[in-house]
Write a structure and sequence with these properties.
6-stranded mixed sheet; alpha/beta; 5-stranded parallel sheet
């Protein structure tokens, strides 16, 4: 399966609405023009002053015909968004001052000055189905907006990420594709966070690969072989909680990588494992292992790694590398629009 082509195909089929908060960023403008031209989204909204966005489009010789321009300062939604943000944050106390984090006036001003929060509120309120940013802003800024406004998915307290790894070898995962998680967000997850990550990654497998997930939660230990040390116990707790939260999910652990991926080794180290020969989603015990793991596979196996794709939010948002190209933005937007799902 050609993952990028499949994401483009699905995004065109689903026809979801996209908001791009960094509407005056040059690569974003070029990407928006391509998304409109290829009909990857039903509607593309760019935040910023219309005159500034159109000037960049002229300079880049691209057409934004059909795009929607929203200047937060002039938006009819601003007061409503400010009120909603106040309701979301009114019980929060500033740790430094001991005072309430927001007032009705400061909430409106915050939404006005932060395009990511304005865009997140558009997604929360249903004016957009998905949001993509990061060509200009830091990952932390996007996560902050997402966690404050969009919140995490029901039953979860954890936002995380995954990579879609294309090994180009059909013997691995689903037609050569695998989900690796978490490789970018949670440095040292607790057992509860590992369970949330596993369940979110399983959803990513369904949404992005179109496959039923078979999840392996990895460790240097298989079924207690590493002894009763904290790193092993933490993964074991994650396995237990994942089974409790999602009993229908095909999942096993804790497992060493070879026990998860090689059936003959599974028989020796984890006999009777329900994921034997089926694993398409792997959960790393921490960010060290996740980041190292996906990069080793990417470089040594000449695999393609798409992401990080954010997961675990109530509605989809995605981050970009600040060194991204306009084509990278288009692909990320397609993935995020697919995460929003097909409307009935």
């Amino acid at each position: 399966m050609d993952f990028v082509k499949e994401m483009m195909r699905k995004a065109k089929e689903y026809q979801n609405n996209l908001v791009l908060p960094e509407g005056t960023e040059e690569r974003t403008v070029v990407a928006a023009a391509d998304i409109i031209k290829e009909k990857i989204a039903k509607k593309v909204t760019l935040l910023g002053k219309k005159a500034d966005i159109e000037r960049i489009a002229r300079e880049k010789n691209v057409s934004l015909a059909g795009a929607v321009f929203v200047d937060p300062a002039e938006s009819e939604w601003l007061d409503d968004f400010g009120k909603d943000y106040y309701e979301l944050r009114k019980d929060k106390i500033n740790k430094k001052t001991g005072l309430p984090e927001v007032t009705p006036e400061s909430a409106r001003e915050y939404i006005l000055k932060d395009p990511l929060s304005f865009g997140a509120m558009m997604v929360r309120k249903g004016y957009a189905d998905a949001m993509v940013s990061g060509a200009l802003s830091a990952t932390a800024d996007l996560l902050r907006a997402g966690l404050k406004i969009i919140k995490t998915a029901p039953g979860s307290n954890t936002a995380s990420s995954c990579f879609v790894v294309d090994t180009h070898d059909p013997k691995w995962g689903h037609e050569g594709l695998m989900i690796f998680s978490d490789c970018a967000v949670v440095p040292q997850p607790t057992g509860e966070q590992l369970a949330d990550i596993a369940i979110a990654a399983a959803k990513s497998c369904r949404d992005l690969l179109g496959a039923e997930p078979a999840v392996a939660m990895l460790s240097f230990s298989t079924k207690g072989s590493g002894g009763k040390i904290d790193d092993v116990l933490r993964v074991q707790e994650g396995v237990k909680l994942a089974h409790e939260k999602a009993p229908e999910l095909l999942l096993d652990g804790e497992m060493q990588a070879d026990a998860a991926l090689i059936p003959s080794v599974t028989d020796k180290k984890a006999p009777g494992s329900p994921v034997k020969g089926k694993v398409n989603t792997i959960i790393f015990p921490d960010l060290n292992a996740g980041n190292i793991g996906y990069k080793l596979v990417q470089r040594l196996a000449h695999a393609d790694a798409y992401g990080p794709v954010l997961q675990g939010f109530a509605k989809p948002i995605s981050d970009l590398s600040r060194g991204c190209s306009s084509k990278d933005i288009v692909v990320t937007c397609a993935i995020t629009l697919v995460q929003a799902g097909k409307k009935n």
